TrEMBL record, chains A, B:
Entries under InterPro entries matching the protein: Class_I_gatase-like (IPR029062), Peptidase_S51 (IPR005320)
SUPFAM superfamilies on file: Class I glutamine amidotransferase-like (SSF52317)
Class of the enzyme per the UniProt entry, highest EC level: hydrolase
Protein name per its UniProtKB record: Dipeptidase E
Length: 235, 235
C-alpha cells in the first residue's frame, strides 16, 4: 500500500529546511529509524555528502537517522532494504539522469508500491508524476528519458506560482507554460503551491496544507481545488 | 561570412511584436525581399500558420515578405534557397524537436556560414548557442538531443532576469540556475536581458541595445559587459 508525501517545496520563506512539515513527517515516519536519502538533485551543485548532511540536520529534530544512497555500492539493494525513502529537491534533470544511471527507477517504484514510506520535495515530487515534462528546472544535463516514477496518474508542477500582474518581464507565466504542455500531452497536471503537499495512502490522493492547488486537464479551463480535496478521479 | 542578430526577446513590455528592433531589422535585411520564417517554437501552442501571420504583420512594416518553412516539402532545400532566415521564439524544446525531425539543423548552419542573414528571438536565439541547456522553457516534449546550432562558441540565456529581492518564492533565481549549469558544463553563458541582442558580423560578436549583459564563465564570478562590448574572446 502506497504511503507518500509529495511536497511542493522543502522550505518556506523565512523558515528552516523541512520545518513547516516536520510534525507531519514525524507521524509519516513514525516507525522508521533510518531514512534512505537520495541526494542526486544536488541543489546549487552541492555534493551528495553536503546535501545528506542538510537532510540529517532536519531529521535529527525528529530523532531519525539519514543515510545517503550514494554511499551504497548497489542502489537497487539499498532501495529494496530501505525503511523509508526521501528524494530531495534541486535540479530535476540532474536527478533523473542519475536515477537512470544507477538503475534506481524501478526499485523505487517497487519499494513504494509495497509500502515503503516516501517523501519527495520539489524535484523529488516532480518525479512522482508520469513524466518530468512539467518541471520548472533548467535542462542543464540531458537525461535518457523524461519518463519518471508514475506513482500518481498525472504530472506535478511543484513551486506553482501565480502570474505576477505587475511584472514587465515578457517570459511566460507558469500557467502559459503548463497550457503549452497541454497542447502536446493529455495527462492532467497538478500545480502545487509552496506549502502544499499531496498525501497518498493506498489509492487515496489528498491535497494537504492551507492553499488551493491549480488543476490543468486536457481541453478544460484550469481550476482550483481546496485543501483536503480528494484527487482520486484525476487521470 | 556570418550576419546575425541574436535577440533576447521579440517583444518589449507595452510595445508591439519586433517593434523595438524594427529599424535595425530594416538595415539587417536591406537586400532581402522575402524572409524564411521558422515558426516551430509555437508560442502558446499557436499553429505554424498563425505564427507566420504574426511575423508577416511585423515585417510588412518594412516591406518584407514572410514565408513559413512549414509550407515547403523539403526543409533543407527551402533553407538553402532562402534569402534570409528568422527563427521565432516560443518553446525551445518544441522548436529543437521539430528542427531535428525535418533535418533542418545542418542546413541552417550551412546557410548562416555562407552569409544568409539570420534573425533569432528568444528560443530562436537560444539555439544559436552550443546547446539548449540554458533555455528557460518548460521541457514539454523530449528532443533527440540538446545540441543546437553552435553558431556562437558559448550558450545563450535569453530573457535574462535579475533576482527579485522582494520575492518570497523559493524557486531558484536565474543566476542560481545558470551557476548550476556551470557545475556540469564548461562553456560560457551569455545572459541577454530583454531589449539586448548580439550582432554577429563574420567573426565579430558585439552586444547591442542599451543594457549590460551578464557573463558566466567556468570558475569565475559572473560579471557584466557593457553595450558595444566585443565578445570575440568568449569561448
Amino acid at each position: 500500500m502506497k504511503n507518500m508525501i509529495i511536497a511542493s517545496t522543502s522550505t518556506l520563506f523565512d523558515s528552516g529546511y523541512l520545518e513547516y512539515i516536520l510534525d507531519d513527517l514525524k507521524s509519516h515516519f513514525s516507525n522508521v529509524q533510518t531514512v534512505l536519502f537520495i541526494p542526486y538533485a544536488r541543489p546549487g551543485g552541492i555534493t551528495h555528502d553536503e546535501y545528506t548532511e542538510r537532510a540529517q540536520a532536519a531529521f535529527s529534530k525528529i530523532n531519525i537517522n539519514v543515510v545517503g544512497l550514494h554511499t551504497f555500492k548497489k542502489a537497487d539493494e539499498a532501495i529494496a532494504q530501505a525503511e523509508a525513502i526521501f528524494v530531495g529537491g534541486g535540479n530535476t534533470f540532474v536527478l533523473v539522469s542519475q536515477l537512470y544511471k544507477v538503475n534506481a527507477i524501478q526499485p523505487i517504484i517497487d519499494a513504494v508500491n509495497t509500502g515503503t514510506p516516501y517523501l519527495g520535495t520539489s524535484a523529488g515530487s516532480n518525479i512522482c508524476g508520469l513524466t518530468m515534462n512539467t518541471t520548472n528546472d533548467m535542462p542543464i544535463v540531458y537525461p535518457p528519458s523524461f519518463k519518471t516514477l508514475g506513482l500518481v496518474p498525472f504530472n506535478i508542477n511543484p513551486h506553482y506560482l501565480d502570474p505576477d500582474t505587475t511584472s514587465k518581464h515578457m517570459g511566460e507565466t507558469r500557467e502559459t507554460r503548463i497550457k503549452e504542455f497541454m497542447c502536446y500531452n493529455t495527462q492532467p497536471v497538478v500545480g502545487l503551491r509552496e506549502g502544499s503537499w499531496l498525501e497518498v495512502k493506498g489509492n487515496d490522493i489528498t491535497l494537504k496544507g492551507t492553499l488551493t492547488a491549480r488543476i490543468f486537464e486536457h481541453n478544460i479551463e484550469p481550476y482550483e481545488v481546496k485543501p483536503e480535496s480528494n484527487l482520486n478521479s484525476l487521470k
